[in-house]
Design a protein that fits this description.
Number of strands: 6
CATH topology of the largest domain: OB fold (Dihydrolipoamide Acetyltransferase, E2P)
Distance between the termini: 74 Å
Structural class: alpha+beta
Strand content: 25-35%
Number of domains: 2
Number of helices: 2
Radius of gyration: 24 Å
Helix content: 25-40%
CATH class of the largest domain: Mainly Beta
Strand order of the largest sheet: 1-5-6
CATH architecture of the largest domain: Beta Barrel
């Protein structure tokens, strides 16, 4: 029995809502696995490092967390010493002072 002023969903609309909710939940779980939320709140680490190599504008350095880092748009040479900023456990960094 339909109640005046209330909209009722048919079975295909209900199935669509269930599918949409399941799709959204799966997307949230997968995105957390691929890019965990703690990556957004981790503390920045600053470290003085030596540029190991420069491969066409991508520099490579080694840091105290034992995760090699890449630095994009790098114009420095091997052996240069710079201060970088990175998130512990992440594989990329930025130069603070060249």
């Amino acid at each position: 029995m339909a109640v005046p002023g209330k909209m009722e969903l048919n079975s295909s609309q209900k199935a669509g809502l269930v599918f949409g909710g399941a799709f959204l939940a799966a997307g949230l779980v997968l995105s957390t696995m691929v890019f965990p939320f703690w990556n957004l709140i981790r503390e920045d680490v600053y470290e003085d490092v030596v540029i190991l190599t420069n491969d066409n504008g991508i520099c490579y350095v080694q840091t105290v967390d034992d995760v090699p880092k890449t630095i994009d748009n790098c114009t420095l040479d091997s052996g240069d010493i710079v201060t970088i900023k990175f998130g512990e456990g992440l594989a990329w960094a930025t130069i603070i002072n060249p």
